[in-house]
Amino acid sequence: MSFVKFMGSHWPTLALSAAAAALSAFVLLVSGASVGLSLLVAGVVVGSAIISIAIDYRRKRPFYGDLAACTDDLEHPLWIFEMVDEPDYPEGRLAYEALSAVSKAANDDVSEYRRQAQDYREYVETWVHEAKSPLAAAHLMLENLMESLPADETGEVLLEKTEALGEELDRVEGFIEQALFFARSESLDRDYLIRPYSLQKLVGDAVRANARVLMGAHVAPYRIDLEQTVFTDEKWMNFILGQLIQNSAKYAAGEGAELVFSSRLCDEGLSSERIELEVRDNGCGVEQADLTRVFDRGFTGENGRTGKRATGIGLYLVKRLCDKMGLAVRAQSAPGEYFAVTIAFPTNKMHYFE
């Protein structure tokens, strides 16, 4: 707080001092004192008030200065109490104690919410791992059942039904994976390992992991110019690509459906040099009005309301995880023609250690 503002906050004191000085000068003049003496007394009264305020300002300035600095520069307001020294005047100590109580209560609440969030995240992770066991057993039972089906018309009907059941189990497994990665996305640093990977390998692994989804939707995957090497985490990127594959399969155009993976090197030699991986399908696309919101949580758009069983979580997780890993992601589309998601990998390795 500046001295001028501090003086302004003490205008009642200054006003009373000025009134007292004027009254003293008037009394002295009426009593026969000289004009010079009257003005001297008035000046002493007003000057004493100003000096008193200046001394008070000098004593309070460190406390107010610390508060102002914390308000302007501190990264988190809850740290203010730790950065401010206790003042030596009564009203300052009262404000300091109040600040201490508020800070302690707020920090206790934050700690409690963090503990609850951590407990919930650990519960979700444990539940996911437990839920995978019966799913794996169900897949094994289906495979055994399919192998034992008779080779006749009845067997063909049963085979078709068991394959449909297998696809639904895959959907359940996909939703469980979403829950796991959603829970882990808040603590990415605990499960994140940067290494160089070939885009050909990353895309190939994701396609193989989602082969049943692609075959069920009759989508043909194509890989073009994927000889580039990028720095990323294999597990998280496999999940991201899996979400893009499942999203494209969900909105596939039917006959002639394609999913094209391609890469290119952009801004070569510049500080913004990057490798962009584009995942493009020829499905129903997205309306321009919906394009800016496709990465919002829970947003399904017009296409999601027409029986596609969309949840609005897949692309949200793609954007969230890319942001956590420092990867740029954007979407492009033309309704009825294509939908494309582009992920940009910085080529500067120092980017991942900032």
TrEMBL record:
Residues 126-349 form the Histidine kinase domain. One of its GO terms (molecular function) is phosphoprotein phosphatase activity. InterPro entries: BphY/WalK/GraS-like, HATPase_C_sf, HATPase_dom, His_kinase_dom, HisK_dim/P_dom, HisK_dim/P_sf, Sig_transdc_His_kin-like_C. It is a multi-pass membrane protein. One of its GO terms (biological process) is cellular response to phosphate starvation. It comes from Collinsella intestinalis. One of its GO terms (cellular component) is plasma membrane. Its EC number is 2.7.13.3. It catalyses: ATP + protein L-histidine = ADP + protein N-phospho-L-histidine. Keywords: Cell membrane, Kinase, Membrane, Phosphoprotein, Transferase, Transmembrane, Transmembrane helix, Two-component regulatory system. Its main location: membrane. This is Sensor-like histidine kinase SenX3. SMART domains: HATPase_c. It is found in: Cell membrane. SUPFAM superfamilies: ATPase domain of HSP90 chaperone/DNA topoisomerase II/histidine kinase, Homodimeric domain of signal transducing histidine kinase. It is an enzyme of class 2 (transferase).
